[in-house]
Amino acid sequence: MEKSYKEAVDEINYKIVELSTLYEIAKSLVSSIDPEVNLSFILEILSRNMGMRRGTLTLLDPDTKQLYIELAHGLTEEEKDRGVYKVGEGITGKVVETGEPIIIPDVGKEPLFLNRTRSRGDISRENISFISVPVKVKGETIGVLSVDRLFKEKSISLEEDVRVLTVVASLIGQAITIAKMVELEKNHLIKEKLSLQRELKSPYRFANIVFQSDKMREILDSSWRVSQSKATVLLRGESGTGKELIARAIHYHSKRCDKPFIGVNCAAIPDNLIESDLFGHEKGAFTGAIQTKRGRFEMADGGTLFFDEIGDIPLSTQIKLLRVLQEKRFERVGGSKSINVDVRIITATNMDLEAAVLKGDFREDLYYRLNVVPVRIPPLRDRKEDIPPLVGHFLQIYNEENGRDIKISNEALDTLLMYDWPGNVRELENCVERMIVMAKNEIIMAEDVPLNIGTDFIVGKGQDGSQNSFLKTLDRTIEEIEKERIIEALKRCGYVQAKAARQLGITARQIGYKIKKYGIEDKQI
Known about the structure:
Elements lengths: L4 H27 L3 H16 L4 E6 L5 E8 L3 H6 L1 E3 L3 H9 L3 E3 L23 E10 L2 E11 L7 H44 L12 H14 L5 E4 L6 H10 L8 E5 L8 H6 E2 L11 E2 L1 H4 L4 E5 L6 H13 L1 E3 L6 E3 L3 E6 L3 H7 L4 H7 L2 E4 L10 H16 L4 E2 L1 H9 L5 H15 L4 E2 L6 H8 L8 H26 L4 H8 L3 H11 L7
């Protein structure tokens, strides 16, 4: 049967509108990377150009396996919120289940049409057609594009509408895919940016800790492993060995790195104030409590709380601390409301806690709570190979701070190597700063080393009581240290002498001479 002139004209006009609509939709998709803006434009274009009264984009939630109206045209927010379907439920659910379009010529005569949004009034009287097509990504149905049409609005068959809407749904699927990719990439870049900022800005990176000894390498390796866990850490070591530095490094390499790191020096807080400092207090809890105060546990919520000198905490506070560790909640001083916290505990001490437990000065149950992962930091005298790189590090810091360019001679460095450093790294740092401030020349010589360091051994006596004997012993000891440093450098550099020389700050010729002088052989390395 031949088409009438009017039918032919209507079909041509429809093709023109169809092409115009698809062009506008494609144009809108490249105008913005915001999927919500793009999809809203699409529904408006369909309504304006093709006379579709209502339009909805319903998406499948992969977690709940339910369908929710993501965007709507011609619906109120309340009507939109009512549009929730299960897979297989109603027309929308059937389209997701089958992955095929569905046409309902008259929704008033279709029992599967639920009209859940109740946006159409009396559907038995409105003569509404309903078209739903699947939105697919890589062959998987992720949602449904649905529109309403009135019977009298067109003479073109509803199958033509399905064809147009299928193309539009395909474009929507691509837009959603691109938006998800952009969002994932954005989140990845944000995480990477935060990570890099943290790495660059934090002076507490493990990579920034200056050392050369195998002992410190083992300590940092253990610390890095424990940083990836939630375990409580007990740092042991003499004063000045860098316990707080390690504690901060553990925090900044953990998943809590974006949360607070709060430090508490238990030895510096008076016994009568420590509970208020840790747990906070309510207004009027005691004389002078003129307002409510948050304690350090609250300030550290989500992050890390570092207790330095934990052995000095009073017994009365130890009981409350144990309760917080066990129950993860506490009350402020003068309060009755329980406050829940999520805090990682790192403690440090130079005290013999085991002896304190035996004396009854430290609770045994608290000791076991804190001693989950013990990390013992050796004193500087037991890792003297760390002294040269530390000296170089402190020279750089205090040269910049004081606007100077002071270097240190090998003789002065040997003098520093001979000292036992009872104050450990902190004492070494103070010594280097003092030498830079007081330096009269551009190079620090042995005689420029502070007397309270040098005289302890330079003017000492040998075993036979003679100063000369002592100096000979000193020379031998310096040679032993130098030999040990060369062997360690060669080990690290795979016995490449030029590379080891650069690390030691000497020439390749000098290291060759010293290797021969000390009789260093491959088997020693």
